[in-house]
Amino acid sequence: MLLLAFILIGLSVITFLLARVVPSDPAASYIGPHPRPEQVAEVRIKLGLNKPLYTQYAYYMRDLLHGDLGTSIRTHRPVTEDIIRFLPASLEIMFTAIIIALIVGILLGVLAAQKENTLIDHSSRLFAVSGVSLPGFWLGLLFQLLFFRWLGVLPLGGRIDTYISVVSPVQNITGFYLIDSLVTGNWLALGSSVMHLILPSIALAAYSTGIITRMTRSTMLEVNREDYVVAARAVGLPERIIALKYTLRNALSPTITTAGLAFVSMLTGTFFIEIIFNWPGLGTYTTMSILAVDHPVIMGVTLIVAIFYVLINLVVDLLQALIDPRIRL
Amino acid sequence: MRFLAEDRFKEQRRFLHFFLKNPLTVLGLVIVFGLIIVALFAPQIAPYPEQGMGLSCVKNRLLAPSAQFLLGTDDLGRDILSRIVFGARVSLRAPIIVISVVVAIGVPLGIIAGYFGGKVDEVIMRIGDLFLAFPSLLLAIAIVAALGPSLINAMIALSVPWWPWYARITRGQTISLKERQFVEAAQAIGGSDFRIVFRHILPNCITPVIVMATLDMGYIILALASLGFLGLGTQPPIADWGVMVSNGRTFILDQWWFSTFPGIAIFTTVLGFNLVGDGVAETLNPKRRR
Hints:
The structure holds 2 protein chains of 2 kinds. Chain A is mainly alpha-helical. Chain A has helices spanning 2-21, 26-31, 37-46, 53-65, 79-114, 119-133, 136-150, 162-167, 177-183, 187-224, 227-235, 239-277, 282-291, 295-323.
């Protein structure tokens, strides 16, 4: 727990310092093009930039503890508000992607381990290592080329058809189009949302599917060599039961850690996917802020994502403890 | 660990034998060597080397692949094949520099932490944990955004979050080696700490570091390409695969060759390094050898 507090404080220091390293003058960027010197001086006082560094940090921490991440230089809205607005869209792709990655990854991993050294095994391994080697943004572009331009079966980008967003818009309850349209019985919107979700999620899932497949396969192979599995086989238990009850259960532990890591890698992966598919999520918001050198946003998002990261590691640890009774918290 | 020269030789030969048994690993090696050759001899291999280095020829803008321009031309009329060939230089040089820096920082810190233990160990590891608490690519993006987009800043930005991994692994090795008899013996004779570290601990830490570095190469190449894609890495007119994919994005639907071929280059390169890394890891893993 103390370690957690230390890490979070350290994170805030790093992000704060990064924001102050910026070569451009934040006051000038806040005003816009061609600021007059009097305006710049005024804004400097307003943004508190004339105070010494440690005072600025103290204000920063105080604001942080109240959930205030500062104001975006680009949108002039509170960063926290912007993040809450754009986060569900990103989470929607991420959750869909991790589900795809888990299902495909675990199935392929188990299959490859069962049929070790056969063509199936080698093909799955090649598939997995390719998934890990593909640049996500490039895969997204290829998908657009293939499925939109050449085959014409899936949409180019966006979360929903423009036509449907006007005629039968999704009511904003959770921010997740799938959930909201399902709950309100908006079938048109649901169908369109699903169609738009397919390509981005698969593009995002590629890397995670790769690492989950590899981890599942290698742990399954290792567990298969363990004494208790050999004993179960010798006693005559059918192979399917051995796989499900003995091997998979015990192989699950490292796989869950990997899935946690995979989910986190998606946090950054989603930035690129969103750019390609014009998805109005946190990634697009942050990228535009990066290009505008909107450092409160960059630092705010970095901090939030890092906290997220720490939380997910915590969840993974908890899940491990749940699955493996030998682990004590 | 063997210390006789003869045993070491036998062990290396056995390593090579198992290493080369897997066809995928051999494929990886072929790709990596091919890449090195392409990078070294870029001016000789590229059909239009001046264009590879940035000379534009706007009248040839966005031409489809043909006999004259095997992979087509980009929006400034430059031959994409030549650009890809020259892109290999950046794609190879930068990750090597990044990994060297990361190893140069991480390994000594890890050894110091492991060998001296106590407060020193605590401090180093806690600082390392801090960097590990960030997703590496995101921190790198934030750093480059703060410092300004350029290749050097991108390399610095990638080195900063990466060193803790190497420190961790070296620290673990050092701790386990510290208790071994030969270290005790050296200490008994009165060997200085420095000498012990250099002659006994460091050589034995190299193997896991090499494994990790090989596995990381692929990821760092991908990270640099991603930074390039965001415009946060190599600046024009230097040929960079990530930048090329990004530039081609506007034209992807009709002039598909612009983004597709550089992407294939990135994919193949990363695949090569990953296959080699996998081969190394698997060969060195005693549990899996038949």
